[in-house]
Amino acid sequence: MKASKTSFFAAALVRGKTAALAFVFLWFSVGGIAHFVAPEYFLKIVPPSLPLRLEAVYISGVFELLGASALWSVRLRRWAGYGLAALTLAVTPANVYMWKHHELFPAIPQALLGWRLVFQVVLLAIILWATRPAKLDNRFR
């Protein structure tokens, strides 16, 4: 009986990590593409005090796409997770700027901008968990 419980939880863990990995891949793939399709939106959220704002938009888009692509490689996945986590932290000033200057973004409710900061912490946890090798998940080793 104990072995079947273990295999049930192991299978659930594998499914959960697979779903989390797919979410991270889609999040950064779509986001990375969006940097090139709608750079004016991203330029608007970059704090004006930062230099090379348009370049920062394009560079962050490139790194989002590189990180998402690297998730497909088992050898690179862990490093992709570290990179995407670092990138998520690097864009924190843009999220804080949006929250502090909510009047510049009237289409987005201020509460949603606050929740966006909370979601960023959750996203970090998902990234690091989904890209961490696990002994129970042999498909990703």
Commentary on this structure:
Keywords: Membrane, Transmembrane, Transmembrane helix. This is DoxX family membrane protein. The chain crosses the membrane at residues 20-38, 50-72, 79-99, 111-131. The protein has 141 residues and is an all-alpha fold. The protein has one domain. It is built from six helices and no strands. The protein has helices spanning 2-37, 39-45, 53-70, 74-90, 92-100, 110-130. The longest helix has 36 residues, at 2-37. The two termini are 27 Å apart. The model has no long low-confidence stretch (mean pLDDT 90).
**What is the number of strand segments?**
0
Domain tally: 1
Question: Which percent range describes the beta-strand content?
Answer: under 5%
- The SSE string, one letter per element, is HHHHHH
| Contiguous runs where pLDDT drops below 50 for at least 5 residues | none
Average pLDDT level: 90
Global geometry: globular
Number of helices: 6
- Indicate the structural class: mainly alpha
**For the terminal residues, how far apart are their CA atoms?**
27 Å
Oligomer: single chain
| Main sheet specs | none
Helix content: over 70%
User: What does the radius of gyration come to?
Assistant: 18 Å
Secondary structure elements and pairings:
Layout: H1 2-37, H2 39-45, H3 53-70, H4 74-90, H5 92-100, H6 110-130
Helix pairs in contact: 1-2, 1-3, 1-6, 2-3, 3-4, 4-6, 5-6
Protein name: DoxX family membrane protein
Keywords: Membrane, Transmembrane, Transmembrane helix
Transmembrane segments: 20-38, 50-72, 79-99, 111-131
